[in-house]
Each structure stands twice: as C-alpha cells, then as structure tokens.
Amino acid sequence: TMTTYKLTYFPVKALAEPIRFILSYMDKEFEDTRFERENWPSIKPTTPFGKVPVLEVDGKLLHQSTAITRYFGREAGIAGKDNWEALQIDIAVDTVHDLRQAIAAFSYETDENVKERKKNEALKDTVPFYLKKLDDLVKLNGGYLANSTLSWGDLYFVAISDYLSYMLQFDIFENHPNLKALKDNVLAIPKIKAWVDKRPASEL
C-alpha cells in the first residue's frame, strides 16, 4: 500500500514550507491541511509537543521541521555522500536558524519600544552580517550552501526565505546575488516549481 502523508500547519509557508518542498521534490503526494489561527487551541492538544508543523506518516505523528526535512533529504539522496558532507549541510541550516531567531526576536516582540531597539540592532549588525556570510558561503560552494551540490539544506533555506523577508519587511535576496541565484535554481527544479505554482498564496 502507498504511504500517506498529511501535513498540518497554519495557512502560511513559514516552517512547514521546507517539508512541502522536500515532499514535492520527491514526488510524494501529501494532504496539505491548513487551519485558521482561531482553531489552534483545539488542535494544539492533538500535537506531540504543542507545536506545528506536524507531519502524519501512515498515522504516525512527526514534528520538528528541520529533522523531518533532513530525514527526507537522506531518503532522497541529497543529504551529503558521507558524514562529513552531512555535517556541512547541518552547519549551514543551523546558521540559517541563528539568523531566523535573530529576526524573530524583534518580529515577535510585543513591547513596541523594546521591539524598535532590537530591530535597529538586528538590521544594523546581525542581519547584514549573516546575509553577507551566507552569500559568500554559497559563492564558495559553487551556488549551494554546502558541498558544491544541491542538498536538503538549500531547499530548507529557500522554502523559509519568504518568511524571513516577511519578518524583516525587505527582500533578503536584494544585493545578495549568490543567494538570489540559489533561490532561482531551487525554484526552477520542475517538481518544486509545480508545487510553488499550485500552492495557496500567502505572504509568509
């Protein structure tokens, strides 16, 4: 029998999009369940750790989007050819998470004064520093985040890039030609392009 996949998340890309990208890349059909924010209190207790995205594989509930994307990356053969290469991908993805956390720290801040201060600091130092370093990394790796070849890390980064740009309120690819080329290459992969063309529209 065919394996069934059901993904549950808010009606946005954000942290579920890497899973949608990798499943699409592998040509696996999945049920893309999106719920409105007001329904979250009733859905939350049904999740393993009170968080989404959750991917149900033949009725087994999985959570943690990076771990899930990495697993399917291994299954798809785009997780490095040995442990050393796998490490390079993990390092790149963890670095992207550091950037995401620096952005989220001000984006989700509720105190307006604190938010403004955190945002100014991040936009002055942290964000440009990370984006330049990541751009250099991609240049060094011949257009990819690691090992000079496509990996699940590239899919992960491009999949959450709209979310990063949304929180920052500017396009992270502007003035970063290597990151922009990476994004264009990932979005040109036929199965990912097909997903992007048919997915519901959302800002983040």
Which features does this protein show?
single chain, 204 residues, alpha+beta, Glutaredoxin, Glutathione S-transferase Yfyf (Class Pi), Chain A, domain 2, 2 domains, four-stranded mixed β-sheet
Structure characterization notes:
By secondary structure, this protein is of the alpha+beta class. It folds into two domains: 80 residues, Glutaredoxin, CATH 3.40.30; 106 residues, Glutathione S-transferase Yfyf (Class Pi), Chain A, domain 2 (Up-down Bundle). It is built from eight helices and four strands. Strands 2-1-3-4 form a four-stranded mixed beta sheet, covered by helices on one side. Helix 1 runs parallel beside helix 3, helix 1 crosses helix 8 and helix 4 runs parallel beside helix 6. The protein is globular. The N and C termini lie far apart (35 Å). One of its GO terms (biological process) is glutathione metabolic process. Pfam families: GST_C_3 (PF14497), GST_N (PF02798).
